Amino acid sequence: MKLELGKIFIRDIRFDDKTHVKDGVLYVNREEVEKLVLADDKLAGCQVDIARPGESVRITPVKDVIEPRVKVSGGEIFPGVIGKVSPSVGGGVTHALEGCCVVTAGKIVAFQEGVIDMSGPAADYCPFSKTYNLCVVVEPADGLETHVYEKAARLAGLKVAAYLGEAGRDVEPDEIQIFETKPIFEQAAMYPDLPKVGYVHMLQSQGLLHDTYYYGVDAKQFIPTYMYPTEIMDGAIVSGNCVAPCDKVTTYHHLHNPVIEDCYKHHGKDINFMGVILTNENVFLADKERHSDMVAKLCSFMGLDGVLITEEGYGNPDTDLMMNCRKVENAGTKVVLITDEFPGKDGKSQSLADTCKEADALASCGQGNATLKFPAMDKVIGTQEFIEMQIGGWDGCKNEDGSFEAELQIIIASTIANGFNKLAARGY
Amino acid sequence: MAQYKIVHYINQFFAGIGGEEKADHMPEVREGAIGPGVGIVAALGSEFEIAATVICGDNYFGENLETATNTIIDMVKEYAPDVFIAGPAFNAGRYGVACGTICKAVEERLQIPVITGMYEENPGVDMFRKDLIIVNTPNSAAGMRKVIPVMTGLIKKMALGEEIMGPSEEGYIERGIRVNYFAEKRGSERALEMLVKKLKGESFETDLPMPTFDRVEPAAPIQDIKKAKIAVVTSGGIVPTGNPDHIESSNATKWGKYDITGMDRLSPDDFTSIHGGYDRQFAIANPNNVVPLDALRELEKAGEFGELVNYFCSTTGTGTATASAAKFGSEIGQMFIDEHVDGVILVST
């Protein structure tokens, strides 16, 4: 399967009468965005705002972040959720508005929605402090049940991203990247002397607001399967969860999965990148056992020499991470894990909730319990009302002027456990 | 005059008083540098002085831990030093434990930066590595020449309040404290490079050596359940409405004890969930889903077990540091032992 990904670099967002892209600027018709969101009667209000890198702006509570993309050919974007499911997803031509994002925010669903600061010390930890963000602040209709609200907010973000992506359909990309993975035997034969490497991608699927969707299917309902890496670039996986903000694999991060990007960079040089094994992080022991068995079976079935494994979340999913590691290594495929750490504010406790002796190679994405002082911002998009309750905050952590102290956990994707950031932890 | 003052702790052997036969030497303080301190202060230069040396026999310290610590703390306090040094103890076990104990006490009680040195197999290392900067030394005093530049470098940084970097740069034994930094490459790239090395059979360095977890042996079964006193403990974050103990929704640093005397069930008007790690909707609507008081009262009435303890203990078990969890467990466990509780139902979420 071969995807041509055309990147249109966006250097600003401005409001205009017509939504279009010109000279690297995304012009947005605000009313059309609001109308699109409010077409869902579960949402009673919608405010659209722009946040730029370097501004004294805080966005919170953030639900999801999405890069606008459009399928120029080969299926539709966000298949099974916004677009139609089709076998050509992951192929053809896709255009991406790189450098801008849709950020959904609004009244809190759970405690697990985070903060994006566009400047100040927290900006160093957040990938979305460096992007131009179209913020869509939604308000649920009266008496809306939590899960229904989460779904409505999730769909609103994806709809807006698909709508903005359309503006890039006929724009000539600034850069074109080609990604290709062939059917398994052909791919293996292509670089016979290089080690065959796969990626075991664990999707958050603990349930009760901790869900991810694969072609619209709730990830806790599937069993481990193979996917072409390019499918994910067309939005085959979307986030629908309220995991701790620092750990959140937003829909943006699915589109820009760093392991897939880096495996393609090394493809044909020092590895032969064979593809993605998709699995989940269900809470039932029987699921954990069955699915880690199947992951190990798929690794040996595909003849993989090595895999990278990533997780989403911490605590309970650490058990899935370790089960996968142990079984895959024992089935003869070498493993490197990527994850973040939670050793307490003083950094002295154990970093993970589970371990195994096979986990001898791990790349750290930093420790999320370290604290940081967040200065007051000139403008807040959304509300700071819930800071003390959001994960990473505590009772009394917020000051009257709007500044607060919190653990890095509160920042969206600050210690994301797929290796997207440069943040790491080491022993002192 | 020197700008920075140091107080140095050594044992009777390094003070030249005697060996094993003098190990019961009581704490004494002498002005100036003695024994290893002479070399240390010479290397530090004229800005530093060892104002006093405290000497104590290893056996005396070990057998009179509290008295010796208190006496020495008072001696150190007199001089108000900028840095406190102990040892180095090399591979001397009792001396290592004494150095660790006194360093920890000086740091905690006097808020003075402290440093010691030990050979990595000294039993003092395991006891104090998390709390102290312990310079990694050879196993005998013959290696003092190697230790001096490492130790004096750290002493200077401590006196000036400069940032102390990682163990390999600075030469101390890793404390096991996880500290963030920005790496040159992102995590996925570093992992991939690690994998390529692992596949080639080349050596590689993991970012996180796997820790060894404590395993708790399960208690023996209850002899007679019909007479047993049963308590409920939950990490599910059920608290009285308003969260009077201000327990955090994640990474809890405390637990609460809540009265249930005379209640047949937990009312959603009086109790709620503050847990940040699960969807609380169903626990808020019915807190008995997490603390099953309703079912337990029925069983109690039916005589299925002896009696229910008239309170439950609660905290939030999400992102909670294992050190906090171990502390809660010890505190709650001791309370149950004191109150002769026979069995505990632990409800996780």
From TrEMBL, chain A:
InterPro entries linked: Gly/sarc/bet_Rdtase_B_asu/bsu, Gly_reductase_pB_sua/b, Sarcosine_Reductase_Comp
Listed NCBIfam families: sarcosine_GrdG
Protein's name according to its UniProt entry: Glycine reductase
Modified residues (Pyruvic acid (Cys)): 242
Top-level taxon of the source organism: Bacteria
Catalytic residue positions: 242 (schiff-base intermediate with substrate)
Key words, A-Z: Pyruvate, Schiff base
Biological source species: Faecalicatena orotica
A single GO molecular function term of this UniProt record: oxidoreductase activity, acting on X-H and Y-H to form an X-Y bond, with a disulfide as acceptor
Pfam family, one: Gly_reductase
Keyword Nuclease included in the entry's annotation: no
TrEMBL record, chain B:
UniProt keyword Oxidoreductase, yes or no: yes
Keywords: Oxidoreductase, Selenocysteine
Pfam families reported for this sequence: GRDB
Molecular-function GO term, any one: oxidoreductase activity, acting on X-H and Y-H to form an X-Y bond, with a disulfide as acceptor
Highest taxon of the lineage: Bacteria
NCBIfam families (alphabetical): various_sel_PB
Protein name: Glycine reductase
The species this protein was found in: Faecalicatena orotica
